[in-house]
Amino acid sequence: MGKSGVDEKILSYNDVVLRQSDLEILSGPYFLNDRIIEFYFSYLSSRYPTKDVLLVPPSIAFWIMNCPVVESLKDFLEPLHLPDKKLAIFPVNDNDDVSKAEGGSHWSLLAFEKKSNVFVHHDSFRGINKRHAKQLFNAVVGYMGASDSAPGATYLECNDSPQQVNSYDCGLYVTAIARAICSWHESGEDKDRDGLWFSAVKQQVTPSSVATMRDEILSEIRGLMPQSSLAVTK
């Protein structure tokens, strides 16, 4: 992908800094990077403002999954207040090289629902991230309960999760599924027999709806950008 010589900062949103190259990624058929997913998760957190829901940034999810000193993980997770969350959503990346920033070639989503006490893995490409999702699940599951004696959550692979129709839209499926789950949680709409969001995701996340996500995210970013940055990007 061709990038501008100077990667100008175009937006600071909460704790996320976006640059010109991020707009270029969204403008073309490219794999989403960490920053764009982090921005959209932060945007969803603002759109659905509740302490019951946590959307975990990609860098935090990656660190949880690959923390080299397990004993330090408890202190690292404490500020997230995981036992207080009714819903927690984690992006999953297949990067196995902890020394490589923004590595990997596939995104998927792992969502925890407290009432059902289950982690659900949504993968838009035939479940190829299952190993990485299980790695994240195993790392974090012991910290979701209010006490060590609380029953451990289970892991569920969603075998009929919406599937991408190309090789580069996995990140968009993560954003679209996250949005559908947050909307489902907020609305309190009828739940499936298992008390989860599968019907809502199937209805809302389709190839046509995902195809509009790039323009939707771009529109949200441009709407938040200062006028000086808008002039640079035109």
Which terms summarize this structure?
single chain; alpha/beta; five-stranded mixed sheet; two-stranded antiparallel sheet
Short structural summary:
The protein has helices at residues 20-27, 34-47, 58-66, 73-77, 130-140, 170-187, 198-204, 207-211, 213-224, 227-233, and strands at 9-13, 16-19, 53-55, 87-93, 107-113, 118-122, 154-157. It is an alpha/beta fold.
N-to-C SSE string, H for helix and E for strand: EEHHEHHEEEHEHHHHH
The first-to-last residue Cα distance is 19 Å
Helical proportion, percent range: 40-55%
Number of helices in the DSSP assignment: 10
The SS-based structural class is alpha/beta
Summed over residues and divided by their number, the pLDDT gives a mean of 91
Low-confidence stretches: none
Main beta sheet: 5 strands, mixed
Can you tell me the overall shape?
A: globular
Rounded to the nearest angstrom, the radius of gyration is 18 Å
Strand segment count: 7
- Portion of residues in beta strands equals 5-15%
Strand order of the largest sheet: 3-4-5-6-7
Question: Explain this structure to me?
Answer:
The chain is of the alpha/beta class and 234 residues long. It contains ten helices and seven strands. The chain has helices at 20-27, 34-47, 58-66, 73-77, 130-140, 170-187, 198-204, 207-211, 213-224, 227-233, and strands at residues 9-13, 16-19, 53-55, 87-93, 107-113, 118-122, 154-157. The strands form two sheets. It has a five-stranded mixed β-sheet, sandwiched between helices. It has a two-stranded antiparallel ribbon with strand order 1-2. Helix 2 packs parallel to helix 6 (170-187) and helix 3 crosses helix 5. It starts with 8 loop residues before the first strand and ends with a helix.
